[in-house]
Amino acid sequence: MTKKVPCTHCAGELEVAERALSTVCPHCQKRLVLESFRIRTHYAVRLFATCGDIFVEKRGQVVATIRADNVTVNGRVRGDVTARGRVKIGPHGSLKGDITAPRLQVESGAALNGYLRIDAGRTRPSGGAPV
Ligand SMILES: [Zn+2]
After folding, report:
1. How far is CA 104 from the centre of its chain?
2. What whole-number distance in Å separates Cα of residue 11 and Cα of residue 75?
3. 76-127 confidence digits (pLDDT tens)
4. What DSSP letter does each residue of 21-62 carry, written as one string?
5. 92 CA to centre of ligand 1 in angstroms
6. Kindly report the CA angle at 35 between 46 and 80, in degrees rounded to 5?
7. Distance of CA 16 to the CA centre of its chain
8. How far is the CA of 108 from the centre of ligand 1 (A)?
9. How many Å lie between the centroid of ligand 1 and the Cα of residue 8?
10. Strands lying side by side in the sheet with 37-39
11. Average of pLDDT values for 62-73?
C-alpha cells in the first residue's frame, strides 16, 4: 500500500509506502519524516516537520515551528503550526503561535494566542485523504 503525501519542505507530492517512517524527497532531495509522534516531555527544535500526525500529550511541551498532517495539542505548544488536516486544541491545551490549517477545533478551556488562517474550502492537494 502506498499513499501520496506533500513534501514538508518543498510541497512537492510523492508516493510513499504506507508504513515507511522516512524517505528522501525526489523533488528537493531532503529527508522527509513520515511517522506520527506523541510528545510527552519537553521537546524543542527549530522545525518539527512530519507528513504524519503530531500529538502533544498533557505533559508534553513543544517549542518549535510545526508542520504536520494533523496536530492535537493537549499540552503546551509555542511556535507556528501549519497542518494539512486538522488542528485540535484540547481542554487543557495551550498554543502560542500562528495556525494555518483547513480545520481548527478548540475545546472549551483551551488557550490560544496567535493569528489564525483557517480555510476548509481551500483546494487540497490531490490525494489528500479526508480527515
Ligand atoms: Zn521536497
Report:
1. 12
2. 28
3. 999 999 999 999 999 999 999 999 999 999 999 999 999 999 988 755 555 4
4. -EEE-TTT--EEE---EEE-SEEEEEEEE-SS-EEE-TT-EE
5. 35
6. 30
7. 18
8. 37
9. 7
10. 37-39, 54-56, 71-73, 86-89, 103-106
11. 97
Distance 90 CA to ligand 1 centre (A): 31
Domain residue spans of the chain: 2-33, 37-118
Question: Cβ-count burial of 87 within 10 angstroms (0-12 exposed, 13-18 middle, 19+ buried)?
Answer: buried
pLDDT, position 123: 54
**CA 12 to ligand 1 center in whole angstroms:** 5
- Determine the distance separating the centroid of ligand 1 and the alpha carbon of 14, expressed in angstroms: 8
Whole-number Å distance, alpha carbon 22 to ligand 1 midpoint, is 13
Contact, 50 vs 33, CB < 8 A?
Answer: yes
Mean pLDDT in residue range 10-33: 94
- What's the CA-to-centroid distance between 117 and ligand 1, angstroms? 23
pLDDT digits (tens, 9 = 90+) for 30-66: 999 999 999 999 999 999 999 999 999 999 999 999 9
Is-above-0.85 flag for pTM?
Answer: yes
